[in-house]
Amino acid sequence: MVLVTDDVKIPRRRRYVSPVRAEQAARTRRAVLQAARELFDEQGYAATGVGQIAARAGVAVDTVYAAAGRKPALLRELVETSLSGADTAVPAEEREYVKELRAAPTAGEKIAIYAAAVAEVQARLAPVHRALAEAAVGDRELAALRAEIDERRARNMRLFAADLRATGELRADLTDVVVADVVWSMNAAEYHALLVGQRGWSTERFGRFLADAWTRLLLS
User: Fold this and answer.
1) CATH architecture label of 71-218
2) Residue 11: pLDDT band by 50, 70, 90 thresholds?
3) Which of 158, 171, 207, 217 is packed most tightly, with the most Cβ within 10 A?
């Protein structure tokens, strides 16, 4: 693109982004997020300072702010990346397991795919959710984030219920709202914390249990 002034064309300079610098920035961001995840899990959100995160990541404090922002923003990034299973947030409809379950022809297959995905997501999310639950008690911004995540799950479960309904295999006596609420309650971090965190279930056992329970509860 060019700028035109008095019939004289002046080339517009294109901003050059070095691939090396971009990769360095991505590595730094991953290190900061990983350090925060470890420290929040080890000592809690309130007891963890940005200086500690910087030291664990091997960077300066200013680098932490530049890479992820203040502690609340950093925790939000941890929540989103844990849900997405990627270095950056990925919308639900763009996640691979969502594409797979929507393409699956039967309700049983859809449930199996989703149950396995929930088990994997919760394994990543567990320490982050504990930090969020702690922080939400005294921080309005993070309390709003926790409520936002819960409501987002509820909306997605209504879509999941409709997807199951389209197979013709759901119980006729259950509405989509009831189906969505049942799945929503059992895919929560709190439910995972009870069975995996307190009772010592493995991720695989938890996933198999969800698939079996939802199949028995919801399908005709």
Assistant:
1) Orthogonal Bundle (1.10)
2) low
3) 207
Contact 115, 210 (CB under 8 A): yes
Instruction: Quickly list DSSP for 54-84.
Output: HHHHTS-HHHHHHHH-SHHHHHHHHHHHHHH
Domains 1-69 and 71-218 belong to one CATH topology: no
The half-sphere exposure of 217 on its side-chain side, counting CA atoms within 13 A, is: 16
Domain 1-69 has CATH 1.10.10.60: yes
Running DSSP on this structure, what letter comes out for residue 2? E
> What residue spans define the domains of the chain?
1-69, 71-218
The 10s digit of each residue's pLDDT in 59-118 is 999 999 998 889 999 999 999 888 888 878 888 888 999 999 999 999 999 999 999 999
